[in-house]
Amino acid sequence: MIASNIIVGFFVVSVISSLMVGFIRSKTLIRWLTIFYTFIHLSFTGFCWVHLGETGLDYFTFDHLGVLLLSVLSVLTVTTVFHGFIYVKNDPPRQYAIYHAALIALVTAMSGAYLANGMTTVWIFVEATTLAVAALIYHDRTPVALEATWKYVFVCSVGIALAYLGILFLGFTVHDVRLLHLSFTSITEIAKLANPLYLKIAFVFVLVGYSTKMGLFPMHTVTVDAHTVAPPPISAFISTTLMNVGFLAIFRIYALFSATTILSFMNHVLILTGFLSLLVSAGYMLKAKHNKRMLAYSSLENMGIVAIALGIGGIGYYAAILHIVLHSFTKAGLFYQMGQSYRVMGTYQLDESGNYMNLYPAGATALLVGLLCITAIPPSGMFISELYLLRAMVTGHYFVYLVIFSLLLCFVLYALLTRVLHIVYSQPRKLPDHSMERVNPWQTVSQYLLFSLVIFICFVQPAAFRELIETIISTLPK
Question: Taking Cα atoms as reference points, which of 263, 271, 280, 268 lies closest to residue 219?
Fold first, then answer.
């Protein structure tokens, strides 16, 4: 009963906050309301930890994976709100209000998607994230932003419809109407009764559909375009917490179907999708000329790694969960830093970027630390997750996969190193036409904190953290 009341209270406060912020024109009041909402979200996350495992309103369950990703969202909400205040400080009041109203709506929708215990509920909240993100992508009101917004809305809507169609397809095979409300529990019962062919079709639909959110091949283009044109704080969200929504939806169906005869089929599909994502990301990163687009393809690469880890299984399950958490903190910090580099250098174009270490040493150092973290070079915690994945490949005798994986990572590493080192140390090939400004070093502290957390995990994985991940994967095949 308490859980239900808190959930109702959280969503009511969230909706009221979003509406109030959207209609208010006082920037000071908008800032305070946004800070108030951030505090409410942190408190709600704390409540979920205290009541781990409980169900509220019959539609939401505080399960371990959902609450873990909700915690990542809470942390990044604080940093995203902070950097958002800086990014939109000179915007007109109406544009300022729409930005923060949409941001609150997005955080609320992602929170609901994390905790939802049924496909119908997940679908509703994922579609809500599409609408909220659309308003944020179009924030700068440019023709490119408009094109990316319409593309994002269309492709994501089609993808979500495909995902839901896959689950509905299973419903046609069941004659017991009590199983058709599509909670995850009922899907387990449906999977036991359904023809394996139907299960395979359903899984492919779900994977392709929610790849629009997770950013996997072949639906990755929409997220890449969104990263490129959205405000940097929003790019950080799209590339981390929103991708986690897609991962969560795919993971839940994978876990439910893993006890059936199609486990091997799902693993092969995930591995194929993961390697294609790695291949595409490596190819496009090698010719990337836009700094934010480079990071967008890096997100595609990392989601490919997560898909491969999930498909390999064994300790790969642990690697997938650990990797997606650490990627969230690392990539968010890099996008925040890319926003600061734009203010200092006046451009996102690689050829116009350079000499960053002399222009802004604090930001350049943060960019280098972020580079170490995202490329899984020790002391990055992502080194541990990728090491676990390599170990899973060796244990499972996937030696061909190991060779291909290592080669593709070499291309990605080369692409990122050459481009980031050019930004930090080399002189610009062309002078930018845009204005430049100074950035106060204290604005970079949040990035150092996020990267420090990722580095800490390389040396110490607290027992509670390990047990949490092991609990999440405990139902999966050994």
Answer: 280
Chain centroid to Cα 272, Å, comes to: 21
Helix (H) or strand (E) holding 271: helix 263-285
- Rounded-to-integer distance, Cα 356 and Cα 350, Å: 12
Within 8 A by CB and 6+ apart from 459, the residues are 379
Other Cβ atoms within 10 Å of 195 Cβ, number: 10
**Count of C-beta atoms within a 10 Å radius of residue 320:** 29
First to last CA, the chain: 36
Confirm if 149 and 139 have CB atoms less than 8 A apart: no
- How do residues 212-234 score in pLDDT, each as one tens digit? 889 898 888 778 888 888 899 99
> Any idea which residue has 């899973």 for tokens?
392
Question: In angstroms, what CA-CA distances link 246 with 239, 289, 320, 392?
Answer: 11, 27, 14, 24
Q: What is the DSSP string of 319-360?
A: HHHHHHHHHHHHHHHHHHHHHHHHHHHS--BGGG---HHHH-
Over residues 285-311, the mean pLDDT reads: 92
pLDDT one-digit tens code per residue, 86-119: 999 888 999 999 999 999 999 999 999 999 988 8
Residue 242 C-alpha from the chain's centroid: 4
Cα separation, 147 vs 151, in Å, equals: 6
Task: Specify whether the backbone of 174 is left (phi greater than 0), alpha (psi in -120 to 50) or beta.
Answer: beta
pLDDT (0 to 100) of residue 297: 92
DSSP letter (8 states) at residue 1: -
Residue 183's DSSP bridge partners are: 118
Report d(CA 172, CA 190) in Å as an integer.
10
Please tell me the pTM assigned to this model: 0.94
Distance CA 329, CA 449 (A): 9
Q: What average pLDDT does the chain have?
A: 90
Helices (H), 286-426: 291-312, 315-345, 356-359, 361-374, 381-395, 399-425
Is 209 in contact with 159 (CB distance < 8 Å)? yes
Helix, strand, or coil (residue 159)? helix
